[in-house]
Design goal:
The protein has 373 residues and is an alpha/beta fold. It has 6 helices and 16 strands.
Amino acid sequence: MSETGLVAAFTGVRRPFALMEFPVPEAEPGAAVVRITLANVCGSDLHIWRGTYDVSRGNSEPFCLSIGHEMTGVVHELGDGFTADSAGEPLAVGDRVVFQYFVGCGECRSCRRDTTPRCPEGLKYRFPPDQYPHFTAAYGQYYYLRPGQAVFKVPDNVPDELAGPANCALAQVIDGLERGGAGPEDRLVIQGAGGLGLNAIAVARERGVGQVIVVDGIPSRLELALAFGADHVIDLNEFPSAEDRIRRVFELTEGDGADLVMELVGSPRSFPRRSGCWPRAGRCWRSATSTGGRRHVGSLATGSRRQDDHRHDVVPPREPAVGIAAALGIGRQLPLRPGSLPQLSADGDRPGLCRPGHRVGSAGGTAAVGRWL
């Protein structure tokens, strides 16, 4: 009898997941089978389960769908020719790995421009669990890694609890802050102190951002934001209107306003719609978790807006605003790169983002806990 494994299948809105057992597939040449050791619950997964993010594609309940995208594991089997990870490091059975959950086609314009998260075929291998190879998402005991999927060996001093989110929130905010050019002297406003927001604070501090202001309405999240390195927090309960919050940002920035704004709530209501809402902010990064993959990018100087379906697009830096839509769950996050993991580990004189002994929860959708500066 062949080896088997379990998959937790999504069956419908607010319905229990169904445990289903399937044979573990054999790795074809160039592919690998990974045994999952940790699967996080991302905020997008909660949106799916609650019904605020529709993945039905017109089908009626009960569903039999595979979901989940934040995961780590160990190599269970390597197919012929699979000898190294995407950074060229030798790979063997038993090695700890983290990997992309989408596969670019390699031929479309997005793939040719090295923007594989926008590949329209990126999730074509996300089969329902009752279809071979059965294990195509995080909520299962195994994962079938196809030829061409990015995979990286996890450093020994990076625990699974940190490597898992690196494939989602951390990778996104690293890329967003890089594209936005965040650095010293910048004043950054982060709307939302969930999993993305807390990662953004840590990465902003790593990049030397001059001032970090975080907006949220949940006291425990505001406490975490300060623990992660925020200079100031703005409590929605204390500053209930947009005008109140804008005025407070001006006060905290000596009348200049923000240089960058990261909207990480994922709700259209949280994005400024009136002229001058975040005055003088030249760059904006927006999460589109619960908006069906659409992005809303506006000139923060003029209040103009535009909308399109590109889940990961960047307004050229010469335009008034820089927007990056990172639709969690379906958006095929910004590519996990080798640079995401070293920032989590100590490297010579570089302490990285983690420090033993300081343990806090990443409030919001991500269920992992981490050790952060």
